[in-house]
C-alpha cells in the first residue's frame, strides 16, 4: 500500500489499519524479546565465566599479599599502606562472619522448611518452638548479606589486582586521604546515595520480597507465629484466588478487579477533562478574579484528606446532613442510600473523587495552557474556528501530548488510591463476600484482609496482582504513547 | 417543500488550483458577537460560583459544626442554635488531642528536614553524575514503586518492633519509615535539576570546586522553588497518614497522630458525643496546614506542573 492510499482512508479505517499492523507485528516482537532474554542469559553466563577466570588468574599471578587477601579481606590493602580500605574490608568480613555464626546461619538453615518445631505447652508453660515469620524475614536478610559479601569479596580481589598493577608500573596508589577527598568530589554519588539506598533496601526491598514469598506460604489466621508454624505451599493461594466457588476467592476477586479498573478509568479521565475544562474557563479572557477562583478550589488540596473526606463521608451518611435536610424539606420519603447500595456507593465515590481531583488537574492544566503558543489560537481564529474546534484541534492534542506521562502515573495512582476509598466507605457495602465490598479496590481489599482478617497469604497474592496489573499497563502505554518515551519531542 | 430552502447558508467556493470545495461561513455581525461573549462569560461566572459553593460548603459546615454547643451527632440544620468554644475547650483539656497534635508536629518537622536532604541528594546524584548502576537504580525504583505500599506493612511492623520503635516508640519509628524510602520520590526534583544548565557545574569545576561545593553553592541557590516544594510536601504528608500511623502505634493512644486519633473519634461508639469534637479537631488541624499551603501555593504549582509534564 502506498502512502497515498493510507492518507485517503477515513479516521476509522486508519485506526483499524494501524491496529492490524500492530497485531501482525506482535509475533515478531515476541520473538525478538525472547531472543533478547536468551541473549541476556547467555551474556550473564559468559560474564560469570570471565569473572571466575579473572579471580583464578589474580590468585595465580598475585604476590603473597594478594593471596592472603583471598582469605583475610583487606590484608593486601593494609600491606600496601591503604589502611582505610583495608580496615573497611576487614570490618565487613568480621561483621559478616559474626552475623552468620551467631544470627543468620540458624535462620538460613531452616529457610527450606520455615521451621519444624512447633510451640507446645509443657506443664502450663509455653515452650516456644520455631518462629516461621522470623525464619522467613531473617532468612531473606541473610541471603542479602551473603550476596553483599560475595560482591565485596570480589571487589577486594579486584582491588588487590589493580593495586599490584599500579605498583608494578611505578605509579603511586591512592591513600586514605585521597579516598576521603574523593567522597566529596569524583565519588560524591556514593556519599549521596549510600544512606538512601540502605534505607530503600531495608525498608522497601526486604519487606517486598518478604511479602512476595508469603504468597507462596499458608500464613494466615490459623497459622500465626509464634503459636503456630507456617510453611511453603507453592501456588495453592493463587489457585484459591482465581477459582470460583464458595470456599474460594475467585468471584469476589473478579468483581473487585473489574471495579478497580472502572474506578481508575473514571477517576482519571473524568477528573482530567473536567479539570481541564475548569482551567480553560478560569483562564478565559474577560473572566475576573482568576486568582480567587483558583484559591477556592485549591482548598481541597490544602486541607488534610482525612479531615475533608471523613467529614464528607459523614455528610452523605443515612443520618447525614444531606439526607436529613432533604427529609425535612419533604423532598424524599426515606434516606437516600448513598453508602449502603452498591451502585449508589460507587457513583458517590466517583463524584466525591471529582471534588477532590479537579483542583489538581486545574493547577496542572493552567500551567500547561499558558505554554501553548498564542499564535496557534490566533491563526485558528482567523481561519474561522469556533471554541469547540480550537479545543478539539489545538488544546486537547497539546494537553494529551504533554500530559501523557501524567495520565499514566495518575491511572496507576488511582488503582492504588487507598485514601479516597478507605476514608469514604472503607470498601463497604460488603456484598461480595470474603471481606470484599462493592467499593473495595484491590488495595483496600488487601488492607482489610491484612488488618481485619489476618489473611496474609491472600493479601500477598493480591499485592502481586496489583503489581502485575500496573506493570502491564505501564508496558503497554510506554509502547503506545510517544511522549512518554521522548520527553523532548513536542517542541 | 421547496428545494431552495435546504441549501445551507454558506458561500461555496470551488478552488480550482487545490481541487477542493471550500465553505466560507458568513462573518457574524460584530454586535451579536459581543453579546454572545457576554452570555458565555455570564454562564462561566454562574458555573464558577456554583462550583465555589460546592467546594467550600463542606469546610464551612465543618467550621459551623465545630462551634456548635448543643449535643448530638449530625443534626438536620446548618446554623448551630448556640455558638461556643466548648468543643475546642474539651478536646484541648480533657482528651489526648494536644499530645497527638504534638506528635504529628514533631514527625512533620523531622520529616521535612530529613526527607528533603535525602530527596535532594538522590536527585542531584542522578541528575548530575554519571556512574555505574545509575540506570539500574532508576529502573529498580520504578519497579519497586509499582508494588502497593501496604503490602510491606506486616514486615515493616516486625522490623520496627525488633528495633523497639512501635507503640511507645512509634514517633521515631514513623519518622524512620517515612524517610527510609523517601529516596524513591526523586522524580520531580531530578526533573528540575535537569533543567539547570550543566555548563554552570563545569565552569565551577574548572575553577576548582568539588562536586559537593557545586551542589551546595550553585545548584541549591538556583533550586529554591523545588526545595520549598519538597519541604512543603514532606511537612504535609504526616498529617494525613492514617494507615501506617495506626498500625505502628498499635492502639497506644499516646503515640497516635492526629489522623488516627480523629478517625477513632468518628468511628467510636460514642459518635453522637464526639462528632462536633471531631469537627473542632479537624478545624485545628486544617487551619495551620491550609494557611501554610496557601502561602506557598506558588511553589506547589511549580512542582506539580513541572512534575506532570516530565512524568
Structure, described:
The complex is a heterodimer of chains A (491) and B (311). In chain A, helix 20 (442-451) packs antiparallel against helix 21 (456-480). Chain A has a two-stranded antiparallel ribbon with strand order 1-2. Chain A has 491 residues and is mainly alpha-helical. In chain A, 34% of the residues are buried. Chain A is globular, with a radius of gyration of 31 Å. Chain A folds into two domains: 62-234, no CATH class; 250-485, MetI-like (MetI-like fold, Orthogonal Bundle), CATH 1.10.3720.10. Chain A is built from 22 helices and two strands. With 311 residues, chain B is mainly alpha-helical. Chain B has a single domain (91-310), classed as MetI-like fold (Orthogonal Bundle), CATH 1.10.3720. Helix content of chain B is 68%, strand content 3%. Chain B has a two-stranded antiparallel sheet with strand order 1-2. In chain B, strand 1 and strand 2 form a beta hairpin. The longest helix of chain B is centred in the N-terminal third of the chain and has 37 residues, at 30-66. The radius of gyration of chain B is 29 Å and the shape is flat. The model of chain B has no long low-confidence stretch (mean pLDDT 84). Classes of the chains: A mainly alpha (491), B mainly alpha (311). At the A-B interface, helix 7, helix 9, helix 11, helix 12 and helix 13 of A face helix 1, helix 3, helix 4, helix 5 and helix 6 of B.
Q: Estimate the strand proportion of chain A.
A: under 5%
CATH C-level class of the largest domain in chain A: Mainly Alpha
The helical percent of chain B reads 55-70%
Which pair of chains has the greatest number of interface residues, and how are they split between the two chains? A-B, 98 and 90 residues
CATH homologous group name of the largest domain in chain A: MetI-like
What is the overall silhouette of chain B?
flat
